[in-house]
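hey can u check if this looks right to u? its 280 residues, i copy pasted from the old doc so theres a chance i mangled smth
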Amino acid sequence: IAVRRIDGNWSIARRGDEFFPQQSVSKTWVALAMLDAVDRGDVHLNDRVRITADDLTLFHQPLAGRVQREGVVEMTVAELLNTAITGSDNTANDSLLRHIGGPDVVRRFIERQSLGRIRFGPGERLLQSRIAGLEWQQRYAVGRNFQVAREQVPLAMRRMALDRYVADPDDGASPQAIVDALARLARGELLSPASTRLMLDTMARTTGGPQRLRAGVPAGWAVAHKTGTGQELAGTATGYNDIAILTAPDGTRYAVAVMLATTTASIPPRMAMVESVSRP
């Protein structure tokens, strides 16, 4: 857990400098790198991105249904940003990532902005396959093909792959680095004013994780956040996260990151723990 007052120097953390799996929290860095590219004129919000069955990923990707019905879907960069952040759609996110030039572009943004202990992985398909002890095949993007293939991996191999990931996550980040980055975003230090507003407005419309940080925030506070949820194996869940910018009625702003590396707790206690951080 890490908490930072955005317009001041107050900060507190518990295990704040350790690496934790980000999972879909990492969509934040794709979005920021994309908006940075917009600010530099390399990408435009009205650019149209073509998405086919070869671009589908896995797990949460409502966009896949549209691609399967229509064959080819074209969306603007702005539309993909909205879909990737507010709906945590993996295909939308990986399509944005592909359009801006791949994982190295995101890594260079993180390095150039000196964001510290934040890693960016290889993209959703490769990351999730490695976590499950598999090598990606495009057929995994269809239906439950990935889950079926994952179940055929020997349990010991799956456990070894998952343990390796948790111990040294390809997409790892420290809670302290995340809240420092969110504070800089909120203060307008990472992007242009227009891109800063767009990113914060988009995060404020996030629909995922209503029972995490958002659930504990008092009436009258504003919440802009991004959740992340990893794979489970034999009762152990990984990468259960929420990061947020919380704004009090008087305008005081806080950046918050709550991250679970692994837990055997069921979903209600997990949600209650995250919610307790933002509850008075």
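The chain is about 45% helix and 20% strand.
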